[in-house]
Design goal:
Elements lengths: L6 E2 L28 H16 L3 H13 L3 H13 L7 H13 L3 H13 L7 H13 L3 H13 L7 H13 L3 H13 L7 H13 L3 H13 L7 H13 L3 H13 L7 H13 L3 H13 L7 H13 L6 H23 L29 E2 L26
Antiparallel strand pairs: 1-2
């Protein structure tokens, strides 16, 4: 099997609950423009504490008088409660009205929230131009996720002229102050050579910063760069560590990659059973590559008793899940499915199939892939780079495709 290089990008779309931590009320800009912002900071504290304690009805009760006084922080808090239906009925129109009032008073979190609504078309007509405008206002006040969102729009030309350099400026600005989503995107810029010079070492540096903060896609990308030794020293053991971190967060391609490393005994002891376990987890989670590799394991009796009927079932699911995949990937999965169908027909009409029947890939493993994510669908595409690999005497027919997230 060959390895494929796929780029995939994603940013969290859920609204960030921008309520400051205990003792940090001043972290939320208080810009009411009415001379009351300083005194109202302490007045809002009980409502914030009730919110953090998940006593949402009490948070509503305590925030209501401040909302009536046009306090932008209280308006933002009440908007969050209305939008999510916390402590009372969900009321998205009321939430939007409160976001607008707070945003017009200069509240960056409310500006970001309005950008999100326009970006997603949540309760309003989707409008990237309006989203960019609100993100820009929030970014001017230092809202790091707004910088990332705005950078994404510049990278795709949605709502603003496409400008890779401006996008990376925004990513870098937010990344420097520790925003993991920005660090991921900056790593992706170096990985793809978009707005930054292509550099695996720099990509790994920024992916690692985001990985340490728990970003699963950065953990995955960093692992594949470490495993392949792209621009840095190869370190399969560290690759396994980061893949397991990503897998713990449910990132399905990490399951598949761990299965491949277990199968080839790279970075961990060789274990066909553990490989099949990881392939099965990926397959059951709906990952098309995992379904394909689990089908191969069942067909060959690798880490599982040979079971051609179950192998065919997973091969069919893999083919059905292959929409949008490269033609050669679809052809390989289809080829396995068709071969398994022929083998089962032969079993039924001629004689039992020998248990050592194997599925041999017709495509040698010569490529490595790095996957990434960019916001709405974590989408990017670059030509895969060829990476020479050492010859493996008896391992040439083993599954070796890797999927790394961009």
């Amino acid at each position: 099997m060959r390895k494929s290089l796929t780029y995939l990008t994603l940013l969290p779309f859920s609204l960030v609950i921008a309520v400051p931590a205990a003792g940090a009320v001043q972290a939320v800009p208080l810009q009411g423009g009415n001379g009351q912002s300083v005194t109202q900071a302490s007045s809002l504290r009980p409502a914030l504490e009730a919110y953090r304690a998940k006593n949402y009805e009490e948070a509503r009760r305590l925030a209501a008088p401040l909302v009536a006084m046009d306090d932008p922080d209280a308006q933002f808090l009440m908007a969050q409660l209305n939008e999510k239906g916390l402590g009372g009925p969900q009321d998205k129109p009321a939430a939007r009205n409160l976001y607008v009032k707070s945003a017009m008073a200069g509240h960056p979190f409310a500006q970001y929230a309005l950008g999100e609504l326009a970006f997603k078309g949540d309760g309003v007509q989707q409008n990237y131009n309006r989203a960019a405008g609100w993100y820009a206002k929030a970014a001017e006040s230092g809202h790091t996720l707004a910088m990332v969102r705005l950078g994404y729009l510049y990278s795709t030309g949605q709502g603003v002229p496409e400008d890779a350099n401006r996008a990376t400026e925004l990513f870098e600005q937010a990344a420097e102050v520790g925003e993991p989503a920005a660090q991921y995107h900056l790593g992706l810029a170096y990985l793809t050579g978009t707005g930054k010079p292509h550099s695996y070492a720099q990509a790994a540096n920024w992916f690692e910063k985001a990985a340490e903060q728990g970003d699963a896609d950065s953990q995955y990308n960093l692992a594949l760069i470490l495993e392949a030794g792209l621009g840095i020293d190869s370190d399969p053991e560290r690759a396994v560590y980061w893949l397991k971190q990503a897998a713990a967060q449910g990132l399905l391609p990490a399951y598949t990659s761990l299965g491949l490393l277990a199968y080839n005994g790279k970075g961990m002891p060789q274990s066909s059973k553990e490989a099949a376990d990881w392939f099965q987890k990926a397959a059951e989670g709906g990952d098309a590559e995992g379904q394909f590799l689990y089908a191969v394991a069942l067909a060959e009796g690798t880490g599982r008793p040979q079971d051609l009927a179950r192998a065919l079932n997973w091969a069919e699911k893999s083919v059905a899940s292959s929409a949008g995949e490269p033609q050669e990937v679809v052809a390989e999965r289809t080829g396995l499915r068709d071969q398994l169908e022929e083998m089962l027909i032969a079993q039924r009409t001629v004689r039992p199939q020998p248990r050592n029947q194997t599925y041999a890939s017709q495509t040698p493993a010569t490529e490595t892939t790095v996957r990434a994510q960019s916001q709405e669908t974590r989408v990017a595409s670059v030509e895969p780079e060829k990476v020479e690999e050492p010859e493996e005497d008896e391992e040439d027919d083993k599954p070796k495709r890797r999927k790394l997230r961009d």
